[in-house]
Design goal:
By secondary structure, the protein is an alpha/beta fold. It folds into 3 domains: 56 residues; 122 residues, Aspartate Aminotransferase, domain 1 (Alpha-Beta Complex); 218 residues, Aspartate Aminotransferase, domain 2. 48% of the residues lie in helices and 12% in strands. The strands form 4 sheets. The chain has a 7-stranded mixed beta sheet with strand order 2-8-7-6-5-3-4, sandwiched between helices. The protein has a 3-stranded antiparallel beta sheet with strand order 10-14-13, covered by helices on one side. Helix 5 packs antiparallel against helix 12. It is globular, with a radius of gyration of 25 Å.
């Protein structure tokens, strides 16, 4: 009679798990040793440290091995992301340091002003317009009516209904009740949407130059930003073929933002449709930040008109209605994504302050003020264009919209950072181009001041470059 071996007890299984874990750590150490040797050989041969083709091959290997081993692909990609990060450290690669952000320039300017400096502020991305009077009145009425309590995390029903009506009126898009959420700022709308879409080990495509918060949010989430650069020579057009060529096995999303900050570019409807088609064909989600959509001198494409299969639209009350300090934005997407965003709002903020939401309702009907602001911004663009045309050592693309210029310096040896420092000595603040990507020879001018003030600032630029 054959004896049956006893089943291993839980302590035996735990011991095996412990040994397996130690073996994994030893393998990581061995892998790092190999990476250091690879780094040494690369240094001897002046070979670039990062190689996308090699990473893509690893991505494919890992996903195939996950399938064979019965491991969730998402778990495998997270482990690969950690291993790649460890390899780069072993090879002496420093994490990419972001350029000076618009907010860092803002903080420095505030410090100087508090010390008594008189500055022409052309750095801050904030219009100098006042919120519509109806908004102030509604917020005041709400405060005196004690509308000062927690609300539903996704927003009060009255505001959600008003937003859905606004979307129908402006874009012809009909959103269901569960496809819209109010967020504590447009910035948080972007971060929460990305957090709901992508995970550590994934990648997402980011056209640049662009607002640095997209890249920073992805990096914070452990997601690799895949940069697709546009160029002044091509009028800052985004190449759909370059977008398609940048897609990797772990790419989950593409981030679009038009009119663009800092270039003011509006993507052509044809290019927009091509990018949306690529996203549909490859199963990507299009994240479209449409915060400057109203500030456009030509029809601006929107995911609410050219609707991808999977999309998130984010926006804010900050620019359109000059409500930057109110910190209120919104998200439009599928019920699943909106539910995840709402969960983050509940976890981190509870809700947007109740009285601000009542002000936002009135903003959505303040079309006259929006029209006035848009007209004024167009006039500023025309006036600044005339002034920049007089400065021979600058070249620029005339913005289609938004509230920025992104000129390139044509003076040998003068980078955007050096120019910003020297211009500060003349009492004018702008933002270095390096804040928006690998654009060291550029700088951003914000049109958030009265026209006469902006013109004076641009003339001081001309004096500096003469």
């Amino acid at each position: 009679m054959t004896e049956t071996k006893p089943e291993p007890g839980i302590d035996d299984l735990r011991a095996k798990i412990s040994e397996t874990t130690r073996e994994v750590i030893r393998l990581v150490g061995r892998r790092n040793s190999l990476a250091r040797e690879v780094g040494r050989l690369k240094a001897m041969g002046s070979i670039p440290i990062e190689d996308d083709a090699v990473e893509d091959s690893l991505l494919r290997d890992v996903t195939e091995e996950c399938d064979r081993a019965g491991v969730e692909r998402s778990a495998g990609l997270k482990m690969l992301a950690l291993l790649l990060a460890e390899s780069k450290k072993a090879q002496g690669v420093q994490a990419r340091q972001s350029g000076p952000s618009p907010m860092s320039v803002f903080a420095k300017a505030i410090e100087l002003q508090r010390g008594g400096a008189r500055l022409i502020r052309l750095d801050v991305g904030e219009p100098d317009f006042k919120p519509p009077p109806a908004v102030i009145e509604a917020c005041s009425e709400a405060l005196f009516g004690f509308k000062t309590h927690y609300t539903e995390a996704k927003g009060i029903p009255e505001l959600l209904s008003a937003l859905r009506g606004y979307l129908r009126r402006k874009s012809g898009f009909t959103a269901d009740e569960d496809e819209v959420a109010v967020t504590p700022s447009g910035r948080f709308a972007v971060y929460a949407s990305l957090s709901a879409l992508v995970s550590e080990g994934d990648s997402a495509i980011v056209p640049e130059p662009n607002w640095p918060a997209y890249r920073e949010a992805l990096q914070h989430l452990g997601v690799k930003p895949i940069i697709v650069r546009s160029r002044l020579e091509n009028g800052w057009s985004l190449s759909p073929s370059e977008v398609e060529g940048a897609i990797r096995p772990n790419t989950k999303a593409i981030i679009l933002s038009y009119p663009n900050n800092p270039t003011g570019k509006v993507l052509s409807p044809e290019a927009f449709r091509e990018v949306v088609q690529i996203a549909d064909d490859r199963g990507l989600t299009v994240v479209s930040d449409e915060i400057y959509n109203e500030y456009s001198s030509k029809p601006c494409p929107s995911v609410l008109r050219t609707v991808p299969r999977k999309f998130v639209m984010t926006s804010s009350f900050s620019k359109t209605w000059a409500m930057t300090g109110f910190r209120i934005g919104y998200v439009v997407s599928s019920k699943d994504i909106v539910a995840r965003v709402t969960s983050m709002i509940s976890l981190m903020f509870s809700s947007v302050p109740e009285f601000i939401q009542y002000g936002a309702i009135r903003a959505l009907d303040s079309d006259a003020e929006v029209k006035t602001n848009v007209t004024e911004m167009k006039e500023r663009i025309e006036a600044v264009s005339k002034e920049l045309d007089r400065i021979e050592s600058l070249e620029y693309f005339k913005p289609d919209g938004a509230m920025y210029f992104f000129p390139r310096l044509r003076k040998r040896g003068l980078t955007g950072r050096k120019f910003v420092e020297r211009l500060l000595q003349k009492g004018v603040t702008v933002t270095p181009g390096a804040a928006f990507g690998a654009y060291e020879d550029f700088f951003r001018i914000s049109l958030g001041q009265p026209k006469e003030t902006i013109i004076e600032g641009v003339r001081r630029m001309g004096d500096l470059l003469a």
